Amino acid sequence: MIATTPRPRESAPSEKYELWRPTITRQKRAALEHLHLEVAKVWSHSLTGYLPKGVTIELDKLAFERFSATVPNLGPKCQIAVFSLEQTQVNGFLATSEALAKYFVTSRLGLSQPTASDEAEWTKIETAIARAASRSLLGGLAEVYAKARLGKIGAVRECHDLNDSFQFDPDEFQIVARFKVAGDNGELRVLAALGSGLINLVRQGPRPTLRKNRNSQVIADVGRQLPIDVDVVLGSWDAPLIELTNIRPGDQILLPEGEDAWLVTRGVRLRAAKIQVAGNRATVEVKGRLDR
Amino acid sequence: MRAHAGSLTSANVRVDAVISRLRMPAESLAAVQLGDLIDIEPEVSGGLVLQLSINGTTVAWASVREADGRLVGTIIDRNANPKLQRVDQWKVRKPPRPRG
């Protein structure tokens, strides 16, 4: 028998339990990640004028932080836009680092290297380019949020210091999405932060994508060949029930001319049509969708 | 009771004149476009049979003929007759494209 002495447990550094920290489910987190991956994609497409050819923006990290811990130190020339999601209580901000703002400016002006006037004040043109890039970023964010039905971004204010915005409580928890220029591990960063209320606005997980495999192809092929019974209707009219109950073989009925005919399946009208009957045959001319 | 029966029989119902029933694969039906022509021919000889239908239920069958430029139906049966419940043949034609 081997005697063992219990090893002292390596205790993890204790963290203060934050009672007011909102909880987030795995599905919601995945939905938020998906949403901001989409933002990065939209930015990469819409900011081609501000990025060198082939350069994209990517989501670096999604975190849940207190505002006081998030307040970014992105340089004096960073571009910050504070905004609200209309008809919600959710406020947020979008911050572009000074380095990225410079990067946008130099790319836009067709310069390969940062300008010599890095430390100097920006010219009016440079300032305007940096602002336009920041607005494009905000536009991309607004587009994705609107598509995800999170609401419309409004009440936009541009500022240089977030603490001066008086819009955020230092203890407020925020969802913080950090983006970077692909391949860069330096200062080329954008940060989108929104109040935790965003969690409740996100309604669904990432949109399921149909994985194409052999089975789904087989199902699709079968679906395409499913037989559907289609009735070709010459027209219709209202008749008293008694007239129909008294109908007898040999009775003659004047029929609709087929000018306003239609195709119907299981009570659902599919297409308007015009029908011409000639002897034992009929020809249906498809006229288009029906006005319902 | 008589009053009820009277009001029922005098009630109006909507009658659809179904000139043909086709069985099309979903793919072919989805591909039908504006202006397409569908030629219909009965599978068996004897001509087209028209169904008088109320909410999808056939209440009578009629043969169809043209008289003085109008279509006239002659009732041939009122009961559910399996011989008359048939599906016609069909073929979709694309309209000829205008030249030039």
Give an overview of the whole structure.
The complex is a heterodimer of chains A (292) and B (100). Chain A is built from 7 helices and 11 strands. Chain A is of the alpha+beta class. Chain A has 2 domains: 26-201, Chemotaxis protein chec, CATH 3.40.1550; 230-288. The relative contact order of chain A is 0.15. By secondary structure, chain B is mainly β. Chain B contains 2 helices and 6 strands; from the N terminus they run H-E-H-E-E-E-E-E. In chain B, the strands form 2 sheets. In chain B, strands 1-3-4-5 form a 4-stranded antiparallel β-sheet. A two-stranded antiparallel sheet of chain B has the order 2-6. The interface between A and B is large, with 54 and 56 residues. Strand 11 (281-288) of chain A pairs antiparallel with strand 2 (37-41) of chain B, so a sheet runs across the interface.
Summary of the model, kept short:
Chain A has 292 residues and is α+β, with helices and mostly antiparallel strands.
